[in-house]
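Hi again,

Forgot to attach this to my earlier email, sorry! This is the prediction with pyridoxal-5'-phosphate bound. I've pasted everything inline since the attachment limit keeps bouncing my files.
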Amino acid sequence: MKAYTTSKRLFERSGAALAGGVSSSLRAAMRPVPLFAASGRGAVVTDADGNRYIDYLLAYGPLILGHAHPELTERIHAAMTNGYTFGLQHEGEIELAARLTEALPCAEQVAFSGSGTEAVMLALRIARSHTGRTKIVRFHGHYHGWSDAIFTAFPSADMKGGAASDAGGKTMPGTGGQSELALQDVILLPWNDAVALEETLRARGHEVAAVITEPVMCNSGCIRPRDGYLERMRELTRELGIVLIFDEVITGFRFGLGGAHERFGIAPDLMTMGKALAGGIALSAVAGSRELMRVVSSGKVSHLGTLNGNCVATAAAIATLDILGRNGGEAFVRMEATAARLAQGLRERIAANGFRGVVNQEGPVFHMMFIDRDAVEDFAAFSERDGALYSDFAERMLEEGVLVRTNGLWYVSTEHTEAHAEATLQAADRALARLAA
Ligand code: PLP
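Structure tokens for the complex follow:
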């Protein structure tokens, strides 16, 4: 048994001056205690008690190059020594913007901000200003940040409350203190359902500024779009003059440098990026056509943020792009192979230990769930999973030296090797056997 004595002691202390003892509500869900980190290197993180874990949380996604990647660290350090931020323009922004327009098929121009939430806020404003319409179509189970404009109750095992609140077709605030009025412009639809989308857009398309979607529903089950679904979404939005936004905060720089839209060969009008964009430094972006971005260039839409495009963040993103792009992007092939091996190994071990489960994998990300089904292809099916059982499994994995998110989503980085995958599968076997006992 591992001891979490120091983390427990620190968590008790942190609640005194830090509201809730954590800096993001999700972290409070970790059991047996929100862990305190001491250091990280490559695919391994060490906690305050000296316990070491193979890390698949990866800071909820940003650490595509693992922890403290030597080249990334060196380039961030070099940038910092010249001054971190000026509130003036600098050449790093020009270089990164140009590099992104080369890498992202849908991008002629980009705008930088600090978090995925802000990038989505900006994308929605661009869409509304461009179209002169106000309604936004979004989907059950997708997450687009926590702004008033778009945060609906989110059914996640590691998010408190509201689990079923957006499952019944009604758009409910995702948090206390959120304006319900802000959500009046949100039309909530089931995802992966081309008929529901077409019916709604044919009836109400004239009011709709944007359809926003995760191109793969990574936040709820890592569910792929059904064949033809994104294509139909693209055709309908184009026909009806609606801005199509792909929220690639997870998939950007993860499904290849060109993100999911390159992988699927479908160009949205706008995309958002965050998380992996700067390898673990806060940076996000909106990218799209020059025509759409004109509302920003003209000043019609305000784009604000004190630290937007700062030198440290742009240097980190350029370094991340360089590292991931080397040798024809072989890192993506490697990460995907590791994820596929893990996903298949977990499927086998779930069954071998007498459980029913599904592991949906796409690129270097997968979702493991305990569920009495052969496949999970939409949000309704995903909602049937046994979240409490998975949470028990995550706690046992921690004891076995593997850090996974309590809701079932796993990320693989460039630093995860075959040896890590093998050790992880052996740990999963032991954890499942203990769970079954
Ligand atoms: N969009 C998606 C698809 C996300 O997964 C997230 C975060 O998990 C966000 C937006 C919000 O990003 P951030 O947490 O950086 O505000």
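The first strand starts at residue 37 and ends at 41. Confidence is low (pLDDT under 50) at residues 159-168.

That should be everything now.

G.
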